[in-house]
Description:
The complex is a heterodimer of chains A (402) and B (289).
Chain A: H1 2-26, E1 35-39, H2 51-67, E2 76-80, H3 87-100, E3 106-109, H4 112-124, E4 129-131, H5 137-140, E5 147-149, H6 154-167, E6 172-178, H7 183-195, E7 201-208, H8 216-225, E8 229-233, H9 236-249, E9 254-258, H10 264-269, H11 272-275, E10 279-284, H12 290-298, H13 306-325, H14 330-341, E11 346-348, H15 351-359, E12 364-366, E13 374-375, E14 381-382, E15 385-392, E16 395-401
Parallel strand pairs in A: 1-2, 1-3, 3-4, 4-5, 6-7, 6-8, 8-9, 9-10, 11-12
Antiparallel strand pairs in A: 10-15, 13-14, 15-16
Chain B: H1 4-35, H2 42-59, H3 64-87, H4 95-117, E1 132-134, E2 137-139, H5 141-163, H6 165-175, H7 177-182, H8 187-212, H9 219-234, H10 239-259, H11 265-279
Antiparallel strand pairs in B: 1-2
Amino acid sequence: MTRYGISRRAALLGTGGAVASFAIGGRAFGQAPAVVFGALPPLTGAGGPYGPAMLRAIQGVVEEANAAGGIRGRQIRVVAEDDQTNPDAGVRGARKLIDVDRVTALMGTWASSVTTAVAPLCWENRIPLFTVSGADSITLLPHQGFIFRTQPNSRLQIATGADFLIRQGARRIFHLAAQSPFAQSSQDVLLEKFRAVQGGAVAGYIVYERDKTAFRSEVDQILRARVDTVFLNGYLPDVTILLRELFRAGFEGRRFTPAYAVNQTTFQTLPNEVTNGVVTWQPSPDVNSGAFRRLQTRFGNVEVDPYSAQTHDHATLAILAAAQAGDASGVAIRDHVRRIASGQGEVVDNVADGLRLINAGRAVNFDGASGPVDFDDRGDIRGTKFRYERAENGRFVVMEIT
Amino acid sequence: MADWRDLLQVLVNGLMTGSVLMLPAIGFSCIFAVLRYPNFAVAGFATVGAFAGWVANVQWGLPVGLALLAAFLVAGAVGLAAEETALKPLRPAGPLTVAIASVALTLLLENILRFVFANDLRGYDLPVLRDWRFEGIRINPQQAMNVGYAVAAASALFALLAFTRLGRAMRAVADNPALADIKGVDPGRIARVAVFLGAGLAGFGGMLIGLDTSIDPLTGFRVILSVFAAAVVGGLGSIPGAALGALVVGVGEEMASVLLSPAYRTVTAFLAILLVLTIRPEGLLGRRG
Lengths: 402, 289
C-alpha cells in the first residue's frame, strides 16, 4: 500500500512542478526570444582540465555582449553540455542542445573524436560548429561551410613540430600515439619529414588505447628501438603515466609532447626529476593582442590556455556574425563569419566594440585572443604561431615562439 | 618475440598489472559470493579509496602503509553506507536492478569526487624510483612493493575467511544462505561485513593503482572492465578465483600487447572471458551451479 502512496505523492509533485514551470515560462512571452548558443566543452574526461575554463571564456563573452545590448536587442543565452571527451556523450549532448534547446551555433568541442562525431549533426541541422580540434580529417568532411576551426590542423602542427625536432638534432624517433583521428596522419607526416633528413628514421610506432593505466610493454619497445627522441602523442592522463614509466626505465633521450598533454597539473603530479627536460609545443595564442590581455584580466591574471583563448573567439565570432547578418539563424551565422573575421573593416578585439560598430552600420574585422582568426575556404585557420617550451624544475621555460 | 628475456619481462609486467587488479576483483567477488549480485560500484569504491589514501598521504603526511589503511577504511565505510541506503532497498527487485543501480552509484561517487577534488590528476607523495635490472629484466621497486601490499591484503582476507568464526559464517552464507540462517547466522550482518570488506579491498586496490600511476575521478572506472573480467574468469563468487583471474587477465593483457597491436589490449579481457567461459562456464575456480 505504501508504494501507491509514494507514487501518488510523486505524481502530485510532478504536476505541481509542471504547472510552476509553465507559469515561469509564461513570463518570457512579450520579449524578443533569446538567442541560444550551445557550448560542448570537455568538462570531464581527458579534456577535463581545460573544459571548465573554455566554458568560462564563452560565458564571459556572452555576458559582455548582453551588457552591450545583445544581438540587435536580443539577449544571448549559453546552454552547456559536457562532452566528457567522449564521442558518445558528445553526440548525446549535441542532440540535446540542437533538439531541445534549439541552439543556432555550437562551440568548444575539444577532442577530435568528439568533433568528428558531432559535426554531421551540425551540418544536417544547418548550424555552425566552432571547434579547437586539430585532426586533418575534420575540415575534409562534407560540412558545407558549417565547420570553423581555430586550431591549426594536425598536419601543420606535426610538420612544424617535426621541423623543430630535426633542428634540435633528433634523428631516430619513436612515435607513441593515443588512439585518435590524428594518430595515423601524424605518423605519415613524421615519416615524410624524418625520411627526408640524413640518418633520419621513425624507428617505432605504437597506437595505444587512451584509458590504459599500464604502459610497461610499450616502454620496453621504446627502449629496444634505441631512439634519441620519443614523441608522446597522447593526452594528459596517459602521458603522465608514460613520463613516469620512461623515467623508471631510465630512458635518457628527448621527450616531446603536445602542450595539452603536459601542463601545470603534471608538475603537481610528478616530481621535477621526472619532468625536467620534457619539451612541449603548441599553437600559441596571440599573447600580445588586446583580446588576449582582456581575457587574462577576466580570468584573474592567471595563465590562459590556448583553448580558452579560442573559445573566447568562437563566442565572439558567432555573436558578431549574427549581429552583422541581423539574423541569428545557423545559416546566417555561417555566411557572415568570414565577413567579420577578415576583410577591410575596422579592427576590433572585443565583442562590445564589435557590436557597437555593427549597430552603427560599420564594417568590422575581429582579431581574437587566439590570433587574427582568418579562415580559409575549408574552415581552417591561417597564420598561427607556435610556441616551444622546456620543463625545468616545475615550470616551463620558453625555447622559441615562431 | 626476441628471446626468453622478453617473455620473462612480459610475464613480470603481467604479474604487476594483475596484482593491482587483484584486490578490486576480490572485493567484487566477495560481495557477489554473499549477496549474489554484481556490484559494479567497486569502480567507485576504488576511486574513493584512492582519494582517501591521497588525502591521508599528501594532506596529512601519513606514510603509505597508513594511507592504504585509510583507503581501506574509508572505501569500506562508503561502500557500506551506499549499500544500506541505495542498494539494499532494491534487493527485492532482483539482482539485475541492483547491478544497474550499482553502475549509477559509481557515476554518483565519481561525480561527488569530481565536485570535491576537481578533474586534476594527482600523485602521491612518493619518490619515483628507477627500475632494478636483473639480466636485462626490469622490475620497479614501487611496483614490487605494490605486489607485496596486494598479496598481504589478500592473505589477510584468506586468513579471516579460513581461521575465524566470522569467516566461517561468511562462507556458510555464501554456500547456502538458507541453511546458514537456520543455523543461527544473521545473513544481514554477514552481508554488511562482506560489503565493507569488498568495498574496502576495492579502495585499497584503487590506491595501489594510484601509487603506480596517478589518480583522478576516473581511476576506478578505467579498470572496471578488467576487474570484471578477472572475477568472471576466476569464477564469480570465488575469492581465490578472483585473485587467479586477475593474474590471468594481467598477463593476458601484457602478452597481447606484444603479440597483437597494443590497441587491441582491452579486447584481451573480453577474449579471456569468452575463452574461459566456453571451456569452463563456471570459471577457473568457480563451482558448477
